[in-house]
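RECORD CONTENTS
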Amino acid sequence: MSGFFFLTRSDNTPPVAILSTNFAEVEADNLIQFSAGDSTDNVGITNYRWDFGDGTTGTGEAFIHAYSEAGDFTVTLTVADKAGNEGKDTITIEVLPNDYWPTAEWPTSIPEEQSMNSKKLAQMMEYIDEQGFAIDSVMVVRNGHIVLEEFPNPNYYQDRLHELYSVTKSFTSALIGIAIHEGCLDSVEQKVVDFFPDREISNLDARKQNMTLEHLLIMTSGLEWDEWTYPYTDDRSVNRQMWLSDDPVQFVLDRPMANDPGVEWVYNSGCSILLGEILEQVTGNTTLEFAREYLFKPLGIENVNWARRKGYYNTGGGLSLKPRDMAKLGHLYLDNGTWDGEQIVPSEWVARSTETSFYHSESSGYGYHWWTLPQSGAYYALGLYQQRIYVVPDFDMVVVFTANIREGPDPEPELLHQLICATNEREIYSKYGFSFDYPIGMTIRENDFREESTSEISGVVQFRFEYPLEIINIIWDTVESVPELEAVLDELLAMVESGGTEVNDKGPLVTMVKEDHEMVYQRVNMTEPGLLITGILGSWYCDEVNRIYMFFYMTLPEFVTQQDLLREFQGHLDSLVFH
């Protein structure tokens, strides 16, 4: 925390810069924590500047940085006080080549070594158990290391294969990208019907003739298809009808057209089956043979079961793998298609596959057989009964869930949210130039930063999560004298009520101390039109910079008890450092 600013600018004693770090030797791409928190000065330090020796600079009392290349790098910390005096400290970081790949075995790590919170991970697993979610396995890979691997279902274990269902589609997409790279296919613009010159295709018209490989990958084929109205075991399910037919590929090709290709997104496993048959035609191998040679073998995936029906590999849902091998696909894509120095999947294909080609909403979309989260840059493979491979590039994280959730809400987006909450958020938000750390959990779906929020004098930052609904707000401003903190809370609530929100009740006013700053907080329940919200508001005063802070945490009451609400508020509060 910053020192006090009570001495005059005539003080000529330079500040003492003290640079500390958790690693002086580290592999490339691994996160290193730097801190200037032990630096001292008579007047008070007002500025911390970092030069990491690789062209990267930053500001703030703490910083997290990763070096992309091996070598020795000199890190320089410069601290300045209010009187304009400066002090410096340096340290040399030895960065080793990142020469490990989990081809044979994943490395493991305690969460704290990968900037994750063991306690929060344990709380997530307790939550899974308490709620009785039918989750078979959870695996979290951070910075290329397994930090969590649990099997809530005792019938599953590390080496047992799990059916992937439609997660298979993302593997099929990777194989198409490899086939293009190998010259077996020209491009995604090739017409689908051109691969089947010897077949008589029903309902053949100009629209079907214009259908391309890309339309199959994005599922905008235009084919008439209804996969989700009826269960897969129901004879009315088009997917079931496909597999009950004499020739599943012919069944898909014969479907009538409902739209021009590229117009409407319709989930269609038949698209994946066509891609699998095309793959076999152009490579001269079975799907499994091609996958073993060009994907599974380089990644060290040996134990594979790929279901085959009516003479066709089920490229829409037939793979079974171990969770550790599922994570390898996520790690491959996280590293832009490279593995142990070899380009397995073209980097251009990874980028194109995981960008949003069709938007379902602002926060959900679809790429080349990958689901996307456009606001965060994350993406995932998804299968029936909630099999998932999440890839979260901002956090260098891969998350695998296997499950058998056949009814009720899908808990995995919420669980991913909890995993994000378990990360050290500084590595994301330090680049925005703010002078304090942010509450854990504000990182995956943040609102756009308002311009004034980057000011060192005043600003507002708001973060909102869609599932579960959470709003975390920090407001700060300079003041000339000590305010009545209770009046600050009352003023905020009055402003809220003037906007049409009804304050139903307020809890008792509580006084506490946060890093030598007295603060007050209060629980409130409010009603917006059709929506009940519960939360806690807090305010406090920092006299060394004459600054008043307001921080509030809001959520839906069904997600928290009053005790949980207080615990979440306190958890966010504890992760803040105020200057």
In short: The longest strand covers residues 517-528. The first helix runs from residue 118 to 131. The CA atoms of residues 138 and 526 lie 36 Å apart. DSSP finds 14 helices and 30 strands in the chain.
